[in-house]
Design brief:
Elements (H helix, E strand, L loop, with lengths): L1 H55 L1 H14 L55 E4 L2 E4 L6 E4 L2 E4 L5 E3 L4 E9 L3 E9 L2 E6 L1 E4 L6 E2 L4 E5 L10 E7 L2 E3 L10
Antiparallel strand pairs: 1-4, 2-3, 4-12, 5-11, 6-7, 6-10, 7-8, 8-12, 9-11, 12-13
Helix pairs in contact: 1-2
């Protein structure tokens, strides 16, 4: 009976230890969940602030936000405005229609940024850690399509405009963090996301190579990096085909 009692006591003590460990684990998970909920609340507050700013500048921002929503990976991407609407500086509307594109051709040759295929400077120093194209989640087997590339640049590193253009949008956007969009005319855009410090304002004209921000981790789940896109007529392009080859 004593032996049985000891065995039972040891079993109960072991079970008690396991329950205590489980209780601590659940407590930690509860704290983590509360932290995530607080972060979600902060993100919601930021989105509300953005919407308030959009309403205050309705004429300008309604068009910009509409383009940004279409640029989200889950939707179609940035597109130009209605025929005749300026896609660059509001004070300098295009004087002619964009050149026609031959069947099967994705970009018009020899027009502005379109003439720079394979010759653009890099927006930041660093190696590409996520490439353009379809990705399969190794855990869930789900497929996603990346509209741009991730460059593993150091936090605080300078971000450069890859071509002269007009700053179309700056600010926080869901999925991108701090985002800068530059309109290069002829329906070409470049996007720079996860920015830490934005150094330009909407409406600014920028030169090729000009510093427009610094690398950060805003909106990123992978740490400091620059997310970069090239778009033409609302369709994402493979940045590797536009950037100057390295080494």
């Amino acid at each position: 009976m004593i032996r049985e009692y000891r065995v039972t006591s040891e079993g109960l003590a072991d079970r008690k230890d396991r329950l205590e460990a489980r209780r601590k684990e659940l407590s930690a998970l509860r704290v983590e969940a509360e932290g995530e909920r607080a972060e979600a609340d902060r993100e919601a507050a930021k989105r509300r602030a953005i919407l308030a700013r959009v309403k205050d500048e309705r004429v300008y921002h309604d068009r910009m936000v509409g383009e940004l929503k279409r640029s989200h990976p889950a939707t179609r991407g940035i597109r130009s405005g209605p025929p005749g609407e300026a896609t660059g500086s509001e004070s300098s509307p295009p004087t002619s229609k964009p050149p026609k594109v031959a069947p099967g051709e994705s970009t018009p040759p020899g027009v502005g940024l379109g003439a720079m295929r394979g010759r653009l400077g890099w927006p930041a120093e660093g190696r590409v850690v996520e490439e353009y194209g379809t990705r399969v989640n190794p855990r869930f087997g789900t497929k996603t399509f990346r509209n741009g590339i991730d460059i593993d640049a150091g936090e605080g590193a300078n971000i450069h405009a890859v071509f002269p253009g007009h700053v179309l949008y700056t600010g926080w956007f869901r999925g991108y963090g701090n985002l800068i969009i530059v309109d290069h005319g002829s329906e070409y855009y470049t996007l720079y996301a996860h920015v830490a410090d934005i150094k330009v304002a909407e409406g600014d004209d920028v030169k090729q190579g000009q510093v427009i921000g610094t690398v950060g981790d805003t909106g990123s789940l992978q740490g400091p990096r620059l997310y970069f896109e090239v778009r033409y007529q609302g369709k994402p392009q493979d940045p590797a085909q536009w950037l100057r080859p390295r080494g």
